[in-house]
Each structure stands twice: as structure tokens, then as C-alpha cells.
Amino acid sequence: MTQPSPPEVPVSPIPTPSPQREPGAIARLTRGLRGLPAAPRWWGPGCGGMAGWLLRQPAGAPPSVDLTPRFHALLARVRDGQPVLPVEAWRHQYVLVRGMLGDELPGYLLDNVQRLERRGLDVREARVDTEGLLLDNVAVLREALLDAAHFGRSVVLVGHSKGGVECTAVLALYPELRRVVRAVVTLQAPYGGSPIAHDLSTTPEMRRLIDFAFPLLFHGVSRSVEELSYTQRMEFIRRHPYPLDIPTVALATSRLSRRSSLYALQRYLDERYQYASDGMVTGLDAEVPGAGMVRLADMDHAEAALRAFPGFSRYHPGDLTEVMVALALEPR
Question: Organism's domain of life (predicted)?
């Protein structure tokens, strides 16, 4: 007797494999770090005692002028809708210079630029590489100043963070450009150095990370971080002091608040070194010799260039920039 054939089972078609995707930046970073040789378990001495080194030099830094009370008076007027800029403000060109990672942050310096433009001022942003080397960006600023001189314009330089260091550096390296510059405004610039940059560049495990991640993620140069360390800034300032005859105002800030986006870094510097900082720079290291100083203890490093969520910041970048420019143009 013939056995009945078993029912045919439908054969599922073999799925076509999906094309392999190129791993993203984070995946490439993780894979690359795993393949690197292990770094020694040594965190180094850090930068204890280095903050404010310039103010403790035997010769002493030129005395600064405390403009903080005047800043608050002008800020109240700006918030009330009153004009604070002097008449001469409309005779100058304003060149704004971004800080580290400024090209990567949406909205960075946007409110600063738009406020000055709404006041009818001639504003441009310098085409610096925000993850590039100091001398390369100084060359860009030098060309911007020479261009302004060619057209008979005077310039007010406004730099945030690393951008402020580059504003002072171009005049330290090329003092003949003093004739073009009406004033300089530095916002939270690590003029004396940054403890975060110092620890990143001198701690083996952290240096290993930035040497790999900076070129991969940001197409930057890791030595640009090292240039903001205390060691590098000490050497640069010793060789190229900033001219004292340029009207300069500098903003130095600190904050330690859970409402700050940089709270983790603020806490790190506070607990390890007892440094009062804005999360990137200490107030002492933002002091520029001979400058008019605005010292605030309630602002983090992002607030001068990025608008914060309501209730998380006491300052608006546009208000801040307008007041600092007004202070720079006031006679002293």
C-alpha cells in the first residue's frame, strides 16, 4: 500500500542581507580606542596652584580697573530698552571671533551678532578654525585687520573664550596693527590658561583621548587644546606681552550651580583645586593685564555665547555684548 506523500511545506525565500553601514563617528571612536595600547594609570599632578599665575608675577601685572558696577548700571538700562552705545560706535567695524568648538554648536554667537546688527553696526565674523592652531587663526585676524585698514576702517575686536585669546595674540604679535584697532573685548578668555585644557593635555589618559577624538570628530588639531594650557600660555605671554595702550575690557566669570550645563566641570575644578570657575576658565585667568574688568560670580562659560533655557541663566548674550562694547568705547 502506497504511503501518502507528506504535505509540502512552503519554503521561505532567503532574505537579502542589508548593506553594511559605515560606522558612525562614535562607533569609530570606540573601536579605535579599544585598539590603542593601554595608558599608564597615572593622572599627573594636575594644575594645582597655577590659576592666577600672571597676577602673582614678581613685577606684577599692570593694574586693572573694576568696571563691574558700571556694567550693572548699563545692563539695567539695556534691559529697560534705553540706548547705551556712544555716538562713535557707528564709525567702527565689529569683528567677532568664535571660541573652541564654536563651529559645532548651533546658535553660537548668534544673539551676540544679531544684537549688534539690530543696533545698525557693521558686524562680521572672522573665518577662524575654531579647532585650529593659534598662529593659523592669528593669520586670519591679521588679514581681516589689514583689509579694514585698506578701506580706512577702524575695528573693535570681540572674542569669546579661545577667540578672545586670539584677539589679544594678533596685537601681541603684530603691534603695528594697533593703529587699526579701536578697542578689544574679551569674553571669558583663558588669557592666562584654562585648567580644563591643562588637565586634558597633560593627563596621559585624557591626552590620549583628545589626540584621537579631536581629529576624528571635529577635524581639529589636538594641539589647539594644549595651546590653552598654563604651560603654553606662560611661554607665549613671556615672549609676546599684550600691548598696554589698547582700550580693552575683559569679562571674568564663575559659577557653581546645578542649573548650569557645565556643572560637572565646575564641580570638578572646585573639588580638586578649589578653583572658582565658569566650568572652563577661572575668573583669575580671564584677567587681561591693564584691562577694564567685569567680574561676575553667576555666569557659566556657555552663557556669554549661547542662549540658555528660561530660568537657567541671568544674562542674555545680546545684552552682555552690547554692554561690553559700550564699556570698551567709554573714555577712561
Answer: Bacteria
Round to whole Å and give the CA distance between 291 and 250: 6
Q: How far apart are CA 238 and CA 148, in angstroms?
A: 29
Cell numbers linked to 24: 558612525
Pairing of strands 292-296, 181-187: unpaired
Contact between 243 and 175 (Cβ < 8 Å): yes
Q: Residue 41 carries which side chain, given as an amino acid letter?
A: R
How far apart are the C-alpha atoms of 161 and 128, rounded to whole Å? 13
Cell output for 15: 532574505
CB 291 within 8 A of CB 71: no
Separation CA 208–CA 319 (nearest Å): 39
Cell of 266: 565646575
pLDDT tens, position by position, 149-161: 999 999 999 999 9
Backbone angles phi, psi at 214, to 5 degrees: -60, -50
Residue (of 118, 120, 112, 114) closest to 188 by Cα position: 112
Residue 168: CB atoms within 10 Å = 28
List the domain boundaries for the chain: 65-329
Asked whether the beta carbons of 132 and 220 are under 8 A apart, the reply is yes
Backbone φ, ψ for residue 123 (5° rounding): -120, 140
pLDDT digits (tens, 9 = 90+) for 233-277: 999 999 999 998 999 999 999 999 999 999 999 999 999 999 999
pTM over cut 0.70: yes
Name the residue type at position 151: F
Give Dmax over CA atoms of the chain in angstroms. 117
Measured distance CA(306)–CA(110) in Å, rounded: 8
For residues 299 and 151, give the distance between their C-alpha atoms in angstroms, rounded to a whole number.
38
φ and ψ of 130, to 5 deg:
-70, -15
**Domain 65-329 maps to which CATH number in 3.40.50.11890, 3.40.50.300, 3.40.50.1820, 3.30.420.310?**
3.40.50.1820
What's the grid cell of residue 309?
A: 533655557
